[in-house]
Amino acid sequence: MKDIIFEKIKQYDSIIIHRHVRPDPDALGSQGGLKEVIKGHFPDKKVYIVGERDDSLSFLVEMDEVGDAVFQRSLIIVCDTANRERIDDERYEKGDFLIKIDHHPEVDEYGDIAWVDETASSTSEMICELFLEFEKDGAELSDEAARLLYAGIVGDTGRFRFPNTTEQTFHWAGKLIRKEFSRPELYDKLYEKSLPLTRLEGYVLSNFELRPSGAGVIYLTKDKLKEFGVTSKEAANIVNTFSTLKGIKAWVFFVEEEDLIRVRLRSKGPEIHHLAGRYNGGGHPMASGAHVLSWEETKEVLRDLDELCANF
Ligand SMILES: [Mn+2]
């Protein structure tokens, strides 16, 4: 599959790379890293990355402006996005040829070619694998590509702590850190927290519930977020805040937004992605997202999570 993708990249003069909405470091790292890899080896090609700007992660990479007309003659590559609804910038449909590169469980088969590897820690790790094709052709990995891919791997593995971290992950991390970029600076920027978010974290730690099943739960209403001056998206950064609690198996953050309640699920035990799938969501076995439309419905989610934890 990697060789076919490399051939496709060779064929096109114009390539547009997408990723999922509400990007995380892996989405941006794989997207930006792939652009760097292609530009590094094929400097004459036009390579663009698209999607909404994310202020908190703009230190990683900035998006490009691309006119509608460019899409028709372009190869489109979508990184780190399991289903079509989550692709940022729907103009991906207008492209000449579509490639999906992803490590989430396959829930929506899209693309003229799809390379899905659930055993990869991150899409950034997959881009490292894809780089091997470039290397065979004489390519060198740039420092900037290494910085971005490393950030993506660090993001999706929780700094190499999550069980998705494999020998391959360390192999690639080892290669990437030989390049010139500051890891301390990268970590500082990835994990810095604002004062309001730190205060909210204090609130979460004091108020979450640990249930007899081993499930943890916290409710963050719109009013609560407003009181602390934190957005729902920012609150996503503290979803692991009580993960080290003794006896906890899985947990959920219910975060109220304008017209829905976001369900952020994490686990150290039972697989929770099927549960997420039943509530308009999906994701990885140990990290998933979903949403419901009422507080009433959160009770059903919690009941399901209790059952998973009790049976684990
Ligand atoms: Mn990812």
UniProtKB/TrEMBL annotation:
The enzyme class is hydrolase
The Gene Ontology terms for molecular function here are: 3'(2'),5'-bisphosphate nucleotidase activity
Q: Where is each DDH domain found? A: 14-153
Gene3D superfamilies the record matches: 3.10.310.30, inorganic pyrophosphatase (n-terminal core) (3.90.1640.10)
- Report the domain of life of the source organism: Bacteria
Taxonomy of the source species = Bacteria, Bacillati, Bacillota, Bacilli, Bacillales
Q: Name one Pfam family in it.
A: DHH
Q: Where is the DHHA1 domain?
A: 227-310
Q: What is its EC number?
A: 3.1.13.3, 3.1.3.7
UniProt xrefs under InterPro entries: DDH_dom, DHH_sf, DHHA1_dom, Oligoribo/pAp-PDE_c-di-AMP_PDE
- Any idea which UniProt keywords this protein has? Hydrolase
The protein's name in its UniProt record: Phosphoesterase RecJ-like protein
